[in-house]
Design goal:
Blueprint: E1 7-8, H1 13-20, H2 31-40, E2 43-45, E3 50-52, E4 54-77, E5 82-87, E6 94-95, E7 100-104, H3 107-143, H4 148-180, E8 183-185, E9 190-195, E10 202-203, E11 208-225, E12 237-242, E13 248-257, E14 267-275, E15 286-303, E16 308-310, E17 315-322, E18 325-330, E19 332-337, E20 342-347, E21 354-356, E22 369-371, E23 375-376
Parallel strand pairs: 2-22, 3-23
Antiparallel strand pairs: 1-2, 3-21, 4-11, 4-15, 5-7, 5-10, 6-9, 7-8, 9-11, 11-14, 12-13, 12-15, 13-14, 15-20, 16-17, 17-18, 17-21, 19-20
Length: 384
């Protein structure tokens, strides 16, 4: 708040002379002299010392801040320890789910897959032979040409052949899957945010090759004091300002609330989803704002500096300027908009009333004052 000085209105010599020549009042004091005395005792307030109560849309909420990060972030690791032959994408490239990203050297895997396919065909032929042998054994046993043991051996051989064939099919499928992993594909749609390896590099199994993010929805992770817990709920609106983008404002909502408070800080983490249509925002931007808890549209608002308190119960009151005098008024407060430093006055002040926002030392209720053109409450901040 701008500092100011209390002064008295100066009366010109001409005015005093005119007062001396004026008619006397019934008490023996001229009317001009009385007017000069009133003027001399009148305090002067600068325009910056007062504000006019005005209609504003106020919002109150829980302050929070933190970096925006991609809600979906996937590290794509190497599925095998091998050399990279080709890399198809670069940082910043947009990819679709299943799109090839890179290809590893796969001669060993191709050989293993070919061997597994050949083994499947071999085991299939063994099954056919075992089926024919078992059918012949069953027929011969029915004619009494062979013993039951021979028939049972033939049936057991068929079961064994079928088991080996099933195993070979599983091994072949596994080999084909391993061969497919030689071509690294995107596990989800998004943007390549980091590439860890180049063509020609040998990458160990499990080591990162790419980092993929989906920035269509960003997420803010913030900590708030547990005293605000009753006001937190999933789906509650959050308004944020992005300082790096000329204080652009975006909206989101609480997606999750951590069920456990930090025992050291007594704070609880909340996770805010921020839709990013057009993907104008990027991960790493710092955002600050509020979880919106209360709103008062078209409320009578004054600057927070205008509200004073008295007594142990901190009863709020303001000093208004009415009829050229200071008027001390008790007020009832409503929504406090900390972001704009405004407070709702539910009772005690009407829109258009002038209130004092500066110090009041030396003046009392009923003291005469004159003011310049006061500022409208919230005029510099603008109505939202």
């Amino acid at each position: 708040m701008t500092a100011y000085r209390w002064g008295t209105v100066l009366v010109t010599a001409a005015a005093v002379s005119a007062a001396g020549c004026g008619a006397k009042s019934a008490g023996g004091v001229s009317a001009g002299t009385a007017a000069a005395q009133v003027a001399a005792n009148t305090a002067t307030l600068n325009a910056s010392d007062v504000a006019v109560a005005s209609r504003q849309s106020l919002r109150a909420g829980i302050p929070l801040s933190g970096p925006l990060e991609a809600k979906v972030k996937v590290t794509v690791g190497a599925p095998l320890a091998e050399q990279l032959l080709e890399v198809y994408v670069n940082e910043g490239d947009r990819v679709q789910q299943g799109q090839p990203l890179a290809r590893f050297k796969d001669q060993v895997l191709q050989a293993a897959a070919a061997y597994a396919r050949a083994d499947v065909e071999s085991q299939r032929m063994n099954v056919r032979v075992a089926e024919a042998e078992s059918a012949r054994a069953v027929a011969l046993f029915a004619e009494g040409a062979i013993a039951q043991r021979d028939r049972d051996n033939a049936l057991a051989a068929l079961q064994s052949a079928r088991a080996r064939f099933s195993l070979s099919e599983s091994q072949a499928a596994s080999s084909e899957d391993r061969l497919k992993t030689a071509t690294l594909t995107a596990p989800a749609a998004g943007v390549i945010s980091k590439r860890y390896a180049q063509a020609g590099d040998r990458v160990d199994n499990g080591k990162p090759v790419f980092e993929l993010v989906d920035t269509r929805v960003l997420q803010l992770t913030a900590s708030v004091p547990t005293e605000w817990l009753p006001e937190l709920r999933v789906g509650r609106l959050v308004r944020l300002t992005i300082a790096q983008l000329d204080s652009s404002q975006v909206s989101g909502q609480i997606a999750r609330i951590n069920p456990t408070a930090d025992p050291a800080t007594r704070q609880i983490q909340i996770y805010v989803d921020v839709p990013n249509p057009g993907e104008r925002l990027v991960g790493g931007l710092f955002a600050s704002g509020r979880v919106m808890t209360h709103e008062a549209p078209n409320a009578v608002a004054v600057p927070k500096e205008a509200v004073r308190y008295e007594g142990e119960d901190r009863t709020p009151y303001v000093y208004a300027v009415s009829g050229g005098k200071i008027a001390r008024r008790r007020v009832t407060l409503g929504v406090v908009d900390d972001e704009r430093s405004l407070v709702e006055i539910a009772t005690g002040v009407a829109a258009g009333d002038t209130v004092i926002v500066g110090p009041i030392e030396g003046l009392a209720d009923g003291a005469p004052v004159q003011v310049g053109s006061p500022a409208r409450a919230g005029a510099t901040q603008g109505t939202r």
